Amino acid sequence: MFSLKTCLFLSLLIATLAIVSVTASTAGSRKLLEDDNDASTFEDAKEGFTSFVDSFWGGSCTSQQQCADYIATCGQKGECRPSWWVWMILVCIVLSFVASCICCICCGICSCIMDCLCCCR
């Protein structure tokens, strides 16, 4: 009855029309920023970030629940401070960076010395 090309074309046309009708009917109903303006959205994001930073470092607290869970504790002066293991992870990262720099320098020097000593290569 219909050739393969005609069936393929008709099915592609029907699929395209279905997609267009669905997206056209839902495009006007999306309200991403409803009645907010950009300034208030930026201020909300800034306030949320500042609140998180304060719950991790320097924010005032009277109990452990006011600081970020697992990564900060309420210190003696009533301020949120990072936990001991956060400091340990940071120290390990810095030490591994320093150790890798030292290894790169030593390997470069050793290969240079080996090139000078073994001139028969």
Characterise this structure.
The protein is mostly helical. Helices cover 63% and strands 5% of the residues. The protein has three helices and two strands, in the order ααββα. Strands 1-2 form a two-stranded antiparallel ribbon. Strand 1 and strand 2 (80-82) form a beta hairpin. The longest helix has 34 residues, at 84-117.
Could you describe the largest sheet, including whether it forms a barrel?
Answer: 2 strands, antiparallel
Strand order of the largest sheet: 1-2
Quickly give the structural class: mainly alpha
Strand segment count: 2
Q: Mean of residue pLDDT?
A: 77
How does the overall form come out from the CA principal axes? flat
Order of helices and strands: HHEEH
Percent range of helical residues: 55-70%
Beta-strand residue fraction:
under 5%
Q: Uncertain runs with pLDDT below 50, 5 residues or more?
A: none
What's the alpha carbon Rg, rounded to whole Å?
31 Å
Descriptive key words:
single chain, mainly alpha, two-stranded antiparallel ribbon, 3 helices, 121 residues, 2 strands
Compile the SSE list and pairings.
Layout: H1 4-26, H2 38-56, E1 72-74, E2 80-82, H3 84-117
Antiparallel strand pairs: 1-2
Summarize the structure.
The chain contains three helices and two strands, in the order H-H-E-E-H. It is mainly alpha-helical and 121 residues long.
